[in-house]
Amino acid sequence: MSHADSLRNLIPVNSLTEDNFNELTASASVQDIPxxxxxxxxxxxxxxxxxxxxxxxxLESDKSESPRTLQGGSEDARYAxxxxxxxxxxxxxxxxxxxxxxxSDLLDRLLTWDQVSGIEVVExxxxxxxxxxxxxxxxxxxxxxxxxxxxxxxxRMETVPVKAHDVVIRQGDPGDYYxxxxxxxxAVSQKGASGKVEIVNQLGAGDQFGEEALISDAPRNATxxxxxxxxxxxxxxxxxxxxxxxxxxDWIDQKEAExxxxxxxxxLDVRTSEEFARGAIRKAHNVPLYRIRQAAPELDPAKxxxxxxxxxxxxxxxxxxxxxxxxxxxxxxxxxxxxxxAPEASHAP
Length: 349
Hints:
Jelly Rolls, 4-stranded antiparallel sheet, Oxidized Rhodanese, domain 1
Protein backbone atom coordinates (compact mmCIF):
# COMPACT_ATOMS: atom_id res chain seq x y z
CA MET A 1 0.00 0.00 0.00
CA SER A 2 1.34 3.45 -0.94
CA HIS A 3 1.73 6.23 1.60
CA ALA A 4 -1.15 8.09 -0.08
CA ASP A 5 -3.41 5.05 0.31
CA SER A 6 -2.40 4.73 3.94
CA LEU A 7 -3.17 8.38 4.61
CA ARG A 8 -6.53 8.15 2.84
CA ASN A 9 -7.57 5.48 5.35
CA LEU A 10 -6.95 7.74 8.36
CA ILE A 11 -9.67 9.48 10.37
CA PRO A 12 -10.75 12.26 9.79
CA VAL A 13 -8.46 12.53 6.74
CA ASN A 14 -10.78 10.07 4.99
CA SER A 15 -13.55 12.70 4.89
CA LEU A 16 -11.55 15.20 2.81
CA THR A 17 -12.34 15.86 -0.84
CA GLU A 18 -9.70 14.83 -3.36
CA ASP A 19 -8.31 18.33 -3.84
CA ASN A 20 -7.96 19.01 -0.13
CA PHE A 21 -6.60 15.52 0.49
CA ASN A 22 -3.90 16.19 -2.10
CA GLU A 23 -3.05 19.50 -0.41
CA LEU A 24 -2.76 17.75 2.94
CA THR A 25 -0.57 14.92 1.66
CA ALA A 26 1.74 17.42 -0.05
CA SER A 27 2.63 18.84 3.36
CA ALA A 28 2.43 15.63 5.40
CA SER A 29 5.66 13.97 6.54
CA VAL A 30 5.88 10.16 6.42
CA GLN A 31 8.91 8.89 8.34
CA ASP A 32 10.65 5.60 9.06
CA ILE A 33 11.24 5.55 12.82
CA PRO A 34 13.56 3.08 14.57
CA UNK A 35 12.50 1.16 17.65
CA UNK A 36 13.02 3.01 20.93
CA UNK A 37 12.24 6.47 19.56
CA UNK A 38 10.11 8.83 21.66
CA UNK A 39 7.52 10.33 19.31
CA UNK A 40 6.06 12.69 21.91
CA UNK A 41 6.06 13.14 25.64
CA UNK A 42 3.26 13.42 28.17
CA UNK A 43 2.42 17.10 28.53
CA UNK A 44 3.53 18.13 25.01
CA UNK A 45 1.39 20.82 23.36
CA UNK A 46 2.59 20.51 19.77
CA UNK A 47 0.33 21.14 16.78
CA UNK A 48 0.83 17.80 15.06
CA UNK A 49 -1.49 14.91 14.40
CA UNK A 50 0.72 11.81 14.48
CA UNK A 51 -0.50 8.55 12.96
CA UNK A 52 1.07 5.09 13.19
CA UNK A 53 1.08 3.58 9.69
CA UNK A 54 3.19 0.50 10.49
CA UNK A 55 5.05 -0.96 13.43
CA UNK A 56 4.22 -0.63 17.11
CA UNK A 57 4.00 2.20 19.66
CA UNK A 58 3.81 2.01 23.44
CA LEU A 59 1.59 4.65 25.06
CA GLU A 60 2.34 5.19 28.73
CA SER A 61 1.42 7.79 31.35
CA ASP A 62 3.13 8.66 34.60
CA LYS A 63 -0.37 8.73 36.11
CA SER A 64 -1.26 5.19 35.09
CA GLU A 65 0.30 1.79 35.68
CA SER A 66 -1.33 0.33 32.58
CA PRO A 67 0.63 1.15 29.40
CA ARG A 68 -1.06 0.49 26.09
CA THR A 69 0.45 -0.89 22.90
CA LEU A 70 -0.84 0.16 19.52
CA GLN A 71 -0.24 -1.86 16.36
CA GLY A 72 0.11 -0.28 12.93
CA GLY A 73 -2.71 -1.33 10.62
CA SER A 74 -5.21 -1.79 13.46
CA GLU A 75 -8.53 0.04 13.61
CA ASP A 76 -7.26 2.19 16.49
CA ALA A 77 -4.26 3.23 14.39
CA ARG A 78 -6.60 5.01 11.98
CA TYR A 79 -6.86 7.73 14.62
CA ALA A 80 -4.13 10.18 15.61
CA UNK A 81 -2.04 9.13 18.59
CA UNK A 82 -2.86 10.86 21.88
CA UNK A 83 -4.91 13.51 20.13
CA UNK A 84 -5.87 15.57 23.18
CA UNK A 85 -3.44 18.34 24.09
CA UNK A 86 -1.51 18.55 26.29
CA UNK A 87 -0.73 14.96 25.40
CA UNK A 88 -1.90 12.56 28.08
CA UNK A 89 0.73 9.88 27.43
CA UNK A 90 4.28 9.40 26.16
CA UNK A 91 4.52 7.55 22.86
CA UNK A 92 7.58 5.37 22.18
CA UNK A 93 8.14 3.02 19.26
CA UNK A 94 8.79 -0.57 20.36
CA UNK A 95 9.47 -1.80 16.83
CA UNK A 96 10.78 -0.17 13.67
CA UNK A 97 7.79 1.87 12.58
CA UNK A 98 6.37 4.23 9.98
CA UNK A 99 4.54 7.33 11.17
CA UNK A 100 2.80 10.21 9.44
CA UNK A 101 3.00 13.72 10.86
CA UNK A 102 0.25 16.12 9.79
CA UNK A 103 -0.19 19.76 10.74
CA SER A 104 -3.30 19.79 12.94
CA ASP A 105 -4.24 23.35 12.02
CA LEU A 106 -4.05 22.60 8.31
CA LEU A 107 -6.10 19.44 8.72
CA ASP A 108 -8.81 21.25 10.63
CA ARG A 109 -8.87 24.11 8.12
CA LEU A 110 -9.28 21.69 5.22
CA LEU A 111 -12.01 19.84 7.11
CA THR A 112 -13.72 23.18 7.66
CA TRP A 113 -13.63 24.01 3.97
CA ASP A 114 -15.04 20.63 3.01
CA GLN A 115 -17.83 20.76 5.55
CA VAL A 116 -18.73 24.30 4.58
CA SER A 117 -19.18 23.07 1.00
CA GLY A 118 -21.92 20.76 2.25
CA ILE A 119 -23.90 23.53 3.90
CA GLU A 120 -26.68 25.20 1.97
CA VAL A 121 -26.58 28.94 1.49
CA VAL A 122 -28.29 30.85 4.30
CA GLU A 123 -31.69 32.33 3.56
CA UNK A 124 -33.20 35.30 5.33
CA UNK A 125 -36.89 35.85 5.88
CA UNK A 126 -37.55 38.88 3.70
CA UNK A 127 -40.78 40.59 2.69
CA UNK A 128 -40.73 41.91 -0.85
CA UNK A 129 -43.61 44.28 -0.03
CA UNK A 130 -41.75 46.16 2.73
CA UNK A 131 -38.66 48.28 2.76
CA UNK A 132 -35.69 45.99 2.30
CA UNK A 133 -33.72 47.48 5.15
CA UNK A 134 -36.49 46.79 7.63
CA UNK A 135 -36.73 43.25 6.32
CA UNK A 136 -32.98 42.80 6.82
CA UNK A 137 -33.04 44.20 10.35
CA UNK A 138 -35.88 41.88 11.38
CA UNK A 139 -33.56 38.91 10.90
CA UNK A 140 -32.23 37.59 14.26
CA UNK A 141 -28.60 38.00 13.24
CA UNK A 142 -29.05 41.73 12.65
CA UNK A 143 -31.22 42.18 15.73
CA UNK A 144 -28.14 41.21 17.76
CA UNK A 145 -25.94 43.81 16.08
CA UNK A 146 -25.13 46.98 17.99
CA UNK A 147 -27.12 49.78 16.28
CA UNK A 148 -23.93 51.56 15.28
CA UNK A 149 -22.75 48.42 13.45
CA UNK A 150 -26.06 48.05 11.60
CA UNK A 151 -25.99 51.69 10.52
CA UNK A 152 -22.36 51.40 9.45
CA UNK A 153 -23.10 48.21 7.52
CA UNK A 154 -25.71 49.95 5.38
CA UNK A 155 -23.42 52.96 4.96
CA ARG A 156 -20.55 50.85 3.64
CA MET A 157 -22.60 48.64 1.32
CA GLU A 158 -22.23 49.08 -2.42
CA THR A 159 -25.19 48.94 -4.78
CA VAL A 160 -24.58 46.49 -7.64
CA PRO A 161 -27.11 46.37 -10.53
CA VAL A 162 -27.16 42.90 -12.12
CA LYS A 163 -28.68 41.29 -15.19
CA ALA A 164 -30.18 37.87 -15.69
CA HIS A 165 -27.45 35.22 -16.24
CA ASP A 166 -24.77 37.33 -14.50
CA VAL A 167 -22.50 35.10 -12.39
CA VAL A 168 -22.06 36.88 -9.05
CA ILE A 169 -19.71 34.41 -7.38
CA ARG A 170 -18.13 31.25 -8.72
CA GLN A 171 -17.43 28.03 -6.82
CA GLY A 172 -13.74 27.72 -5.94
CA ASP A 173 -12.99 31.45 -6.05
CA PRO A 174 -11.72 33.21 -2.92
CA GLY A 175 -14.29 35.05 -0.81
CA ASP A 176 -14.32 38.82 -1.29
CA TYR A 177 -17.84 40.13 -0.61
CA TYR A 178 -20.94 39.41 1.45
CA UNK A 179 -24.21 39.97 -0.43
CA UNK A 180 -27.81 40.91 0.30
CA UNK A 181 -30.40 40.63 -2.46
CA UNK A 182 -32.42 43.84 -2.65
CA UNK A 183 -34.25 42.96 -5.86
CA UNK A 184 -34.29 39.95 -8.16
CA UNK A 185 -33.70 36.21 -7.99
CA UNK A 186 -30.71 33.91 -8.37
CA ALA A 187 -29.85 30.22 -8.50
CA VAL A 188 -27.31 28.46 -6.29
CA SER A 189 -25.43 25.62 -7.96
CA GLN A 190 -22.70 23.30 -6.74
CA LYS A 191 -20.29 21.07 -8.63
CA GLY A 192 -19.92 17.71 -6.92
CA ALA A 193 -16.94 15.38 -6.74
CA SER A 194 -18.20 13.60 -9.88
CA GLY A 195 -18.12 16.87 -11.81
CA LYS A 196 -21.90 17.09 -12.06
CA VAL A 197 -23.38 20.55 -11.46
CA GLU A 198 -26.69 20.73 -9.61
CA ILE A 199 -29.00 23.58 -8.64
CA VAL A 200 -29.26 23.34 -4.86
CA ASN A 201 -31.23 26.47 -4.00
CA GLN A 202 -33.13 29.47 -5.29
CA LEU A 203 -32.74 32.87 -3.60
CA GLY A 204 -34.79 36.04 -3.78
CA ALA A 205 -35.21 39.52 -2.32
CA GLY A 206 -34.12 39.65 1.32
CA ASP A 207 -31.84 36.63 1.10
CA GLN A 208 -28.13 36.77 1.85
CA PHE A 209 -25.15 34.76 0.64
CA GLY A 210 -21.37 34.66 0.67
CA GLU A 211 -20.67 34.81 4.40
CA GLU A 212 -19.31 31.28 4.89
CA ALA A 213 -16.23 31.77 2.71
CA LEU A 214 -15.45 35.01 4.57
CA ILE A 215 -15.74 33.45 8.03
CA SER A 216 -13.71 30.34 7.22
CA ASP A 217 -11.32 31.98 4.73
CA ALA A 218 -12.32 29.10 2.45
CA PRO A 219 -12.98 29.11 -1.30
CA ARG A 220 -16.55 29.77 -2.42
CA ASN A 221 -18.61 26.62 -1.94
CA ALA A 222 -21.17 27.38 -4.66
CA THR A 223 -21.83 29.38 -7.81
CA UNK A 224 -24.51 32.10 -7.69
CA UNK A 225 -26.07 33.15 -11.00
CA UNK A 226 -28.85 35.68 -11.43
CA UNK A 227 -32.06 34.32 -12.96
CA UNK A 228 -33.53 37.81 -13.35
CA UNK A 229 -32.43 41.41 -13.45
CA UNK A 230 -31.95 42.78 -9.96
CA UNK A 231 -30.04 44.84 -7.43
CA UNK A 232 -27.51 43.42 -4.98
CA UNK A 233 -26.03 45.12 -1.94
CA UNK A 234 -22.51 43.97 -1.15
CA UNK A 235 -20.16 44.42 1.77
CA UNK A 236 -16.39 44.01 1.38
CA UNK A 237 -14.73 41.20 3.33
CA UNK A 238 -12.85 43.52 5.71
CA UNK A 239 -16.06 45.39 6.54
CA UNK A 240 -17.97 42.14 7.02
CA UNK A 241 -15.35 40.81 9.43
CA UNK A 242 -15.31 44.08 11.38
CA UNK A 243 -19.02 44.83 11.50
CA UNK A 244 -20.65 41.39 11.46
CA UNK A 245 -18.27 38.57 12.30
CA UNK A 246 -16.44 40.25 15.18
CA UNK A 247 -19.52 41.25 17.22
CA UNK A 248 -21.50 38.11 16.39
CA UNK A 249 -18.95 35.47 17.40
CA ASP A 250 -18.35 35.44 21.14
CA TRP A 251 -15.02 33.75 21.85
CA ILE A 252 -14.40 32.39 25.34
CA ASP A 253 -11.39 30.72 26.90
CA GLN A 254 -11.31 27.43 28.78
CA LYS A 255 -11.95 28.98 32.20
CA GLU A 256 -14.95 30.93 30.93
CA ALA A 257 -16.30 27.84 29.18
CA GLU A 258 -16.00 25.74 32.33
CA UNK A 259 -17.89 28.41 34.31
CA UNK A 260 -20.68 28.51 31.74
CA UNK A 261 -20.98 24.73 31.66
CA UNK A 262 -21.15 24.66 35.46
CA UNK A 263 -24.11 27.02 35.21
CA UNK A 264 -25.98 24.70 32.82
CA UNK A 265 -24.88 25.75 29.34
CA UNK A 266 -25.03 23.14 26.61
CA UNK A 267 -21.88 21.85 24.89
CA LEU A 268 -21.72 21.18 21.15
CA ASP A 269 -18.84 19.38 19.43
CA VAL A 270 -18.91 20.30 15.73
CA ARG A 271 -16.18 17.89 14.60
CA THR A 272 -16.99 14.84 12.50
CA SER A 273 -18.77 11.94 14.16
CA GLU A 274 -15.63 9.83 13.82
CA GLU A 275 -13.50 12.44 15.58
CA PHE A 276 -16.12 12.73 18.29
CA ALA A 277 -16.27 8.96 18.79
CA ARG A 278 -12.56 8.89 19.41
CA GLY A 279 -12.61 11.41 22.25
CA ALA A 280 -14.72 14.32 23.37
CA ILE A 281 -15.36 16.51 26.37
CA ARG A 282 -17.81 14.87 28.75
CA LYS A 283 -21.47 15.72 28.15
CA ALA A 284 -20.74 17.19 24.71
CA HIS A 285 -23.38 16.64 22.03
CA ASN A 286 -21.98 15.93 18.58
CA VAL A 287 -23.39 18.10 15.77
CA PRO A 288 -20.96 17.97 12.81
CA LEU A 289 -20.63 21.35 11.11
CA TYR A 290 -22.33 20.20 7.92
CA ARG A 291 -25.44 19.30 9.97
CA ILE A 292 -25.60 22.48 12.02
CA ARG A 293 -28.62 23.94 10.25
CA GLN A 294 -30.62 20.73 10.32
CA ALA A 295 -29.88 20.33 14.04
CA ALA A 296 -30.84 23.90 15.00
CA PRO A 297 -34.53 23.08 15.64
CA GLU A 298 -33.43 20.50 18.22
CA LEU A 299 -31.63 23.13 20.34
CA ASP A 300 -33.22 25.01 23.22
CA PRO A 301 -33.50 28.71 22.27
CA ALA A 302 -33.59 29.66 25.96
CA LYS A 303 -30.27 27.95 26.68
CA UNK A 304 -26.67 29.10 26.24
CA UNK A 305 -24.33 26.85 24.25
CA UNK A 306 -20.57 26.47 24.01
CA UNK A 307 -19.31 25.12 20.67
CA UNK A 308 -15.88 23.64 20.03
CA UNK A 309 -13.88 21.80 17.39
CA UNK A 310 -10.19 20.92 17.14
CA UNK A 311 -8.74 24.40 16.53
CA UNK A 312 -11.68 26.83 16.50
CA UNK A 313 -12.07 27.11 12.73
CA UNK A 314 -15.27 25.08 12.47
CA UNK A 315 -16.58 26.56 15.72
CA UNK A 316 -16.51 30.07 14.26
CA UNK A 317 -18.84 29.10 11.42
CA UNK A 318 -21.15 27.12 13.72
CA UNK A 319 -21.38 30.03 16.16
CA UNK A 320 -22.14 32.53 13.41
CA UNK A 321 -24.82 30.38 11.81
CA UNK A 322 -26.53 29.56 15.11
CA UNK A 323 -26.42 33.22 16.11
CA UNK A 324 -28.24 33.92 12.85
CA UNK A 325 -31.04 31.79 14.22
CA UNK A 326 -31.26 33.64 17.49
CA UNK A 327 -29.30 31.25 19.73
CA UNK A 328 -26.92 32.40 22.47
CA UNK A 329 -23.67 30.77 21.28
CA UNK A 330 -20.08 30.97 22.54
CA UNK A 331 -17.08 29.49 20.72
CA UNK A 332 -14.15 27.92 22.57
CA UNK A 333 -11.10 29.89 21.47
CA UNK A 334 -8.47 27.65 19.90
CA UNK A 335 -10.61 24.53 20.31
CA UNK A 336 -9.29 21.35 21.86
CA UNK A 337 -5.77 22.18 20.71
CA UNK A 338 -5.65 25.24 22.97
CA UNK A 339 -6.75 23.58 26.20
CA UNK A 340 -4.31 24.17 29.04
CA UNK A 341 -5.29 20.96 30.74
CA ALA A 342 -7.02 17.80 29.63
CA PRO A 343 -10.79 18.13 29.51
CA GLU A 344 -12.91 15.64 31.39
CA ALA A 345 -13.36 13.21 28.53
CA SER A 346 -16.21 10.81 27.95
CA HIS A 347 -14.11 8.50 25.80
CA ALA A 348 -10.63 9.97 25.43
CA PRO A 349 -8.22 8.22 23.05
